[in-house]
């Protein structure tokens, strides 16, 4: 299919055309005599030129059927999935003139909106394709209005051993266990800065605060109607319960992104998915939002969290609750799935370990979206991902409340024309006068109708309150226990202190008690009770002398009006210890302190 050559192609096409014009000189058709026949020469020049022109048109125009039906099958036949992935990234990070592009127009019916930011169309590329931010403009040029780079981890890491990416062709699916292969924050930062600096050099007026500050009047994608997201992951060696990798990501890469995505749903990093449960998620998102607030300029970047459709309804409700309470701006559902048996897969690679993506994921991603939508306020958008293959899938996601969709696996199978194909399919499916925006939330009567499921949110609130009460009781118990332990410790300390101070006085005062008993008796404290001031003995039951045995539970009552300094025990009263019965003989001293019967003076 030959397409009209747009003006922008004049430069890219000039090179192949020039090359083809030279070709006859190098390899021209010559007569046996050695002379070149001018007619044949012109004929072959024209043929080669035409082939080159047609080839170039097919190459540059991402809509060419050749991409989906020739180039992609050839790549699949010749390269393993990871090689094919690398090749695609290389092609899309080539200089602008050498890259295929979307030659179509995004009409007004395709306009979308995300977190208050306008989008030329509702189709984005999901995380995991451009892991190290190498081909952002190549992807925008293909017609994606939203590009998500990453997942990026703080430290470079190579990921899992090869092979780790598998095609499931019979199922239009893939399984990957890349395990966050990432060149690290530093490398991604340098790519983002390079891109910004190159743009600033061409448009200095947009950068009054210098070439590395966010531009004025433009999103950080540097293209109106486009969004650049940075997806943050976590190093395999980082502690499972640490949020630090994400917080560092927000600080380091957040200033260059319209959206930072917190990816806690990849199945290939041990422990990562556990971060989706409510308490760790709330803690993480609260920290991320605070970090974002600290670096925000003009309300950017926004924060989104990416979850998997493998979560139960309860778990999705927990995610919604964490999103609501922490002020996160949006949710992406879904990442890959670890489901297998229920998917009815045909491919021989179905048994590979890892996250499954592509068509079989779609019903599960859609179901998760439908569960989540009524649990979030209408102003918290959801990005639908997971098995979106064509315009009909995208519109089904929109009707269930997705503000936009992302693709990855379809891009791997359908090729560089995928965004254009999807957009054309969406536009064709829309009734005349209809628009993407009007489809968003159509299942609820439109975006304005995407209200809370009041009963569900109320029930969830009641459950939360009950849990909070229970937690409160546990905390009170713990505190009480700690208080009594602390009091007991204080009492023991006071006893030891008094013992040390009184030892000399008692020995020198000649009480008539045997030395050992005196030594035991001095282990005392001065206590104030409602009955008066008491000197409490804490000598052990195993004391060696009869007097000391008496002293074991002895309490010498001193009238309340008699001032007794805490450090002095009156010796004559000590003699009376034999006659005095302890008020609670079985209770230990610590028990009496705990019960409030006694307090230390
Ligand atoms: C090879 C591959 C690598 C991926 N890497 C990431 C990643 O690094 N971070 C992430 O959040 N999602 C990653 N994903 C998940 C995709 O972003 C997407 O959520 C998922 O594939 C579902 O969409 P799809 O069915 O259109 O592919 C990856 C997917 C694939 C196929």
Describe this structure in words.
The protein is of the alpha/beta class and 601 residues long. It folds into three domains: 7-59; 109-452, TIM Barrel (Alpha-Beta Barrel); 484-600, no CATH class. It is built from 19 helices and 17 strands. The protein has helices spanning 10-27, 38-60, 65-78, 81-92, 136-141, 184-202, 244-253, 278-295, 313-326, 362-372, 391-399, 409-414, 418-429, 436-439, 454-508, 515-521, 546-551, 571-574, 589-595; strands spanning 112-114, 117-119, 123-125, 146-152, 165-168, 173-176, 227-232, 259-263, 302-307, 330-333, 355-358, 382-385, 402-407, 524-529, 532-537, 555-558, 599-600. It has an eight-stranded parallel β-barrel with strand order 3-4-7-8-9-10-12-13, surrounded by six helices. A four-stranded antiparallel sheet has the order 16-15-14-17. Helix 7 (244-253) runs parallel beside helix 8 (278-295) and helix 15 (454-508) crosses helix 19 (589-595). The structure holds flavin mononucleotide. Flavin mononucleotide is lined by residues 126-128, 131, 150-151, 165, 174, 176, 178, 231, 263, 266, 306, 335-336, 357-358, 361, 385-388, 407-410.
């Amino acid at each position: 299919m030959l397409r009209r050559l747009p003006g922008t192609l004049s430069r890219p096409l000039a090179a192949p055309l020039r090359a083809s014009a030279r070709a006859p000189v190098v390899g021209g058709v010559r007569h046996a005599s050695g002379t070149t026949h001018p007619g044949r020469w012109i004929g072959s020049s024209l043929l080669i030129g035409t082939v080159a022109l047609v080839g170039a048109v097919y190459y540059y125009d991402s809509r060419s059927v050749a991409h989906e039906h020739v180039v992609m099958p050839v790549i699949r036949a010749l390269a393993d999935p990871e090689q094919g992935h690398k090749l695609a990234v290389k092609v899309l990070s080539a200089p602008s003139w050498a890259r295929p592009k979307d030659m179509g127009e995004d009409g007004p019916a395709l306009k979308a909106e995300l977190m208050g930011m306008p989008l030329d169309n509702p189709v984005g590329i999901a995380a995991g394709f451009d892991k190290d931010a190498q081909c952002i403009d190549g992807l925008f040029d293909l017609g994606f209005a939203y590009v998500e780079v990453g997942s990026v981890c703080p430290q470079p890491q190579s990921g899992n051993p090869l092979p780790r990416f598998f095609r499931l062709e019979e199922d239009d699916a893939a399984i990957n266990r890349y395990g966050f292969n990432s060149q690290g924050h530093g490398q991604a930062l340098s790519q983002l800065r390079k891109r910004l600096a190159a743009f600033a050099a061409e448009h200095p007026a947009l950068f009054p605060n210098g070439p590395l500050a966010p531009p004025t009047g433009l999103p950080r994608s540097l293209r109106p109607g486009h969004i650049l997201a940075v997806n943050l992951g976590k190093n395999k060696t980082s502690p499972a319960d640490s949020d630090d990798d994400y917080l560092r990501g927000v600080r380091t890469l957040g200033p260059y992104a319209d959206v930072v995505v917190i990816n806690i749903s990849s199945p290939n990093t041990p422990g990562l998915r556990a971060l989706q449960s409510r308490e760790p998620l709330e803690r993480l998102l609260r920290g991320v939002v605070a970090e974002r607030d600290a670096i925000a300029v003009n309300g950017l970047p926004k924060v989104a969290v990416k979850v998997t459709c493998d979560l139960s309804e309860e778990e999705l409700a927990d995610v919604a609750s964490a999103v609501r309470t922490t002020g996160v701006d949006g949710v992406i559902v879904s990442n890959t799935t670890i489901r297998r048996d229920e998917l009815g897969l045909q491919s021989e690679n179905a048994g590979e370990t890892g996250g499954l993506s592509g068509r079989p994921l779609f019903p599960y991603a859609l179901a998760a979206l439908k569960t989540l939508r009524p649990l979030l306020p209408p102003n918290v958008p959801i990005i639908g991902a997971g098995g979106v293959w064509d315009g009909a899938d995208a519109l089904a996601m929109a009707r269930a409340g997705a503000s936009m969709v992302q693709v990855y696996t379809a891009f791997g199978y359908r090729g560089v024309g995928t965004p254009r194909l999807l957009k054309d399919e969406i536009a064709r499916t829309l009734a005349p006068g209809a628009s993407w925006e009007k489809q968003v939330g159509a299942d609820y009567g439109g975006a304005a109708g995407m209200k809370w499921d009041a009963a569900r949110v109320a029930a969830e609130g009641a459950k939360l309150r009950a849990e909070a009460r229970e937690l409160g009781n546990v905390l009170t118990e713990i505190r009480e226990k700690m208080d009594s332990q602390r009091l007991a410790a204080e009492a023991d300390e006071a006893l030891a202190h008094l013992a040390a101070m009184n030892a000399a006085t008692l020995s020198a005062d000649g009480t008539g008690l045997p030395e050992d008993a005196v030594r035991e008796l001095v282990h005392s404290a001065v206590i104030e009770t409602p009955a008066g001031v008491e000197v409490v003995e804490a000598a052990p039951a195993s004391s060696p002398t009869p007097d000391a045995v008496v002293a074991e539970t002895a309490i010498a009552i001193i009238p309340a009006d008699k001032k007794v300094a805490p450090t002095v025990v009156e010796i004559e009263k000590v003699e009376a210890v034999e006659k005095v019965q302890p008020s609670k003989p079985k209770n230990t001293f610590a028990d009496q302190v705990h019960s409030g019967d006694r307090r230390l003076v």
